[in-house]
Specification:
By secondary structure, the protein is α/β, with parallel strands linked by helices. Helix content is about 30%, strand content about 25%. It has a 6-stranded parallel beta sheet with strand order 1-4-3-2-5-6. The protein has a 6-stranded antiparallel beta sheet with strand order 9-14-11-12-13-10. Strands 7-8 form a two-stranded antiparallel sheet. The two termini are about 30 Å apart.
């Protein structure tokens, strides 16, 4: 139903990115990618703050005629340690696509596992950053922590950089309306239904992707057929109704629609579900992958006294969504 992250990591070599961005799942890089500039982080959302860092890194790489790449981790370390399910702003697949759009030379996706988490910060810097990748400049955020027990930080990087022959560049966070743009802030905004604010932080609409699965077909029975999609490990948006646009590649692109996220209280639903009605479309989309862009929050989820009341409200909601 959905591309599991571990499966994606195992099959990275099969992904074709037209030769413009090479993807590695370990630290064994061809010689032409060594002696490089490297940005390290989770890059969840690839938001405007991330984009600013990547732009600065690229400019420095161009000036020094060096290759430029990103190192990220899968699963996101916070998910690995906390076992939290719903956390991500974007899937790994989306992250790859968004980073590709930043025109990197290469991307390292390191599996975050027990062996890697137990690597000391000194060994990470000496054995990987210096010896294996031979990095000349390393871009990290000021709150970057790494190595066993998270003992490594930017101060320790700067203390060791002369001996290890690289330079640490600690990036300043980007602010919007005097507030720092961060993945943490974006997750909070999504959970509050502040979709328009999220768009400002990301520089694009927030979107998720998933495979259409078969449900109880209640929407079809009341005249509003929906595509049912599991949220998997995405951050859960505020329950309610949203204006969306939907893409099913090679079938249709950016069609307007209405989405409901919640438990369907009118029908006493128990499982969290995303349901999407795509305007003017009657195709069978079971097992198809949809990309759903969230445009605006319409109203909170509500339990109606009857299906008749629910249908009346849906018609009102659809009118609002068509104007978005």
């Amino acid at each position: 139903m959905y591309l599991k992250n571990t499966t994606l990591i195992q099959n990275l070599s099969k992904i074709n990115y037209n030769g413009k961005m090479k993807i590695f799942k370990n630290f064994i890089l061809p010689k032409k990618f060594k002696n490089c500039i490297l940005a390290i982080g989770n890059f969840d959302g690839v938001h405007k703050g991330h984009q600013k860092v990547l732009k600065a890194s690229k400019l420095l790489a161009k000036k020094n005629k060096l290759k430029f790449g990103v190192m990220t981790f899968e699963p996101i370390p916070h998910i690995y340690f906390t076992k939290i399910k719903n956390y991500r702003v974007n899937s790994l697949n989306q992250k790859i696509e968004f980073l590709k759009a930043q025109k990197l030379d290469f991307l390292i996706i390191k599996k975050f596992d027990k062996k890697f988490r137990n690597l000391s910060y000194k060994d990470f810097l000496k054995k990987i950053i210096q010896k294996k990748i031979n990095t000349k400049y390393v871009f990290v955020s000021k709150n970057f922590k790494f190595g066993k027990n998270r003992l490594g930080n930017t101060l320790k990087m700067k203390n060791l950089e002369n001996n290890l022959k690289f330079k640490t560049i600690v990036t300043k966070p980007l602010k919007l309306e005097n507030k720092i743009i961060s993945s943490t802030k974006i997750r909070k905004l999504i959970s509050f239904g502040k979709i328009k604010k999220v768009k400002k932080y990301l520089g694009r609409s927030w979107e998720l992707e998933g495979i259409v699965m078969k449900g109880f077909q209640r929407g079809r029975k009341i005249g509003f057929p929906t595509c049912n999609i599991n949220l998997n490990n995405y951050i859960v948006p505020k329950n309610g109704v949203y204006a969306v646009s939907v893409t099913c590649k090679r079938v249709f692109y950016n069609r307007k629609g209405i989405a409901n996220i919640g438990y369907r209280p009118t029908f006493n639903g128990k499982n969290l579900l995303l349901e999407v009605n795509i305007f003017g479309l009657s195709k069978n989309l079971y097992n198809k992958k949809l990309e759903i862009k969230f445009k605006d929050f319409i109203r909170p989820e509500k339990k109606f006294k009857s299906v008749v009341e629910l249908k009346k409200q849906i018609k009102i909601d659809i009118k609002k969504c068509k104007k978005k």
